[in-house]
Design goal:
Blueprint (H helix, E strand, L loop, with lengths): L1 E2 L8 E3 L1 H5 L2 H17 L2 E5 L5 H16 L2 H4 L13 E3 L13 H7 L7 E5 L20 H26 L17 E7 L2 E2 H5 L6 E4 L5 E6 L5 E4 L6 E4 L6 E6 L1 H6 L9 E3 L4 E3 L15 E3 L5 E2 L2 E8 L6 E2 L17 E2 H13 L1
Parallel strand pairs: 1-11, 2-3
Antiparallel strand pairs: 3-12, 4-5, 5-6, 6-17, 7-16, 8-13, 9-12, 9-17, 10-11, 10-13, 14-15, 18-19
Helix pairs in contact: 2-6, 3-6
Amino acid sequence: MASNSALTDIPIVDFGQFLHGGKEEKELVAKSVDNAFRNVGFVYLKGHGIERDLVKRCFEWSAKFFALSPETRLLAPHPPGGSHHRGYSAPGVEKVSQHAYDAEELKKLREVPDYKESFESGNVNDDAQPNIWLPEDKLHGFRAFMEEYFTVCANLIHHILDALSIALNVDDPGLSPTHSKSLFQLRLLHYPAIDAEQLRNNARSRINAHSDFGTLTLLFQDHVGGLEIEDPIHPGTFRQAAPIDDTVLVNIGDLMARWSNDRYRSTVHRVGLPPSVPVTKPVPGLGVTTEGEREPFRPDVVVPDRYSIPFFATADMDAVIEALPGCWDEQNPKKYEPVTAWDYVQMRMAALYS
């Protein structure tokens, strides 16, 4: 599939005006976010309220975690299957797929493994999906920081849901109360360094083309690059979603697309070969690169380690997802059967870890 960096840009919206503005400012920001999700499915938010230093520290903790020995990382193992999505997954364990559920089809997809590793955590007090942590003496302070960062990201999700409630004319108290955080997930991702030629020839993938299956996703990424989103008007053509300092990239997931009766786009995206490589090397332990020029990849180039931090939001387990009032009528009927958030998530997770 083609890659193109010259297509329509992902909008950049100053969310600080929503967080700190009055009614008129909130409505203007809500309209801008609504337009971005309708047309592209993604938006960059600046002024989002998560401090730069906190994001930097999260990348530092991520680098420390993945620098531990494999034996130590596996002291917090992701359980077999996808029903309990917490803990550490080694490279090749998870294979991202796009609406593939047939056993033979999934087997074929796994012939090109996702070359990444991850650590998942969720709500601090979650009986349904309890967290799986390393022993404290293996990485002192890691758990406390990740719990803090989870709470900050969850708060931002609720502010974005408030903006969508305004845009969709959802009656008070809006969409926020339908998200109690029990299905929220904070993920640390590490893509080990890899020969550019392996990505170019599809001998390995970092993450295959897919859409997220929750309601909203926040993404913090380092400066290595490689994230691409599919052009909504030209399926099969992908464009770079380049890192932009002091922003968070937000996208719609499948459940929110269903909830809005496809008013919002759950856009397919992937992580592959970046368009260029930083001339300077990544800063050890930070998961980011120093300032410097970039140069095109050559066949002999090694793509450096990439770190990203997505935060996935999903409605409460028993929330019934069907077209919201105002998102359907006789001319635009409901497109999907009702489904609970839990049933839908479990169906998608089973495909990832089957």
